[in-house]
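ok so for the tutorial part 2 we go from a plain amino acid sequence to predicted structure tokens. step 1 is just haveing the sequence, like this:
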Amino acid sequence: MTKKTIKKSGQVGATQFETKIKSDGTAIVRAWRDYRAGVAPTTAQRVWEIASDFGGAKTIFPLLLSVYITYPDASTTKLGTARYMTFPPPDLGSPLSPKNPLFFGIEKLIEIDEQARRLTYISPLGMPVQNYQSVMQVTGEDACRLTWTSTFVPDAGQEGFVDVLAQILASGANQIATALGLT
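step 2 — the prediction. this is what the tokens look like for a chain of 183 residues:
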């Protein structure tokens, strides 16, 4: 019996998302939000500044209890920077729950392209998945779009985490708008 590809889409606030679990078990979660023009110097630049501040995850996820940053060396390179994050216990209204907990996470920055306004990070530990990679990209010159795409293979019995992650990414994109006063 061949597995079918499962697709879903939805919206959290002004952020849209889609999820797909391919027949090989690979999951793709994509969230995107459009931001209106008008934040100086440009909305696109300000969204990028928040998205690319790898140590500033609390701006995107204000419920974080802690973010600890380690750098690969004493140079000014950002590649290889790791962030260790702890989250509060989930409440009943949260997309995270005792069934889908996320108490801590480790993410490592593996690519940043300032010109293309794109960064890529991996998560080697903390989520109930394997081979996690996430890409954030800001397109546009003033009004802009943030697209946040994650690919991974859910651990056995953790397919529900795909929907949880869609909620997390969408909430993060909305929080950037809140931080910029664009809600």
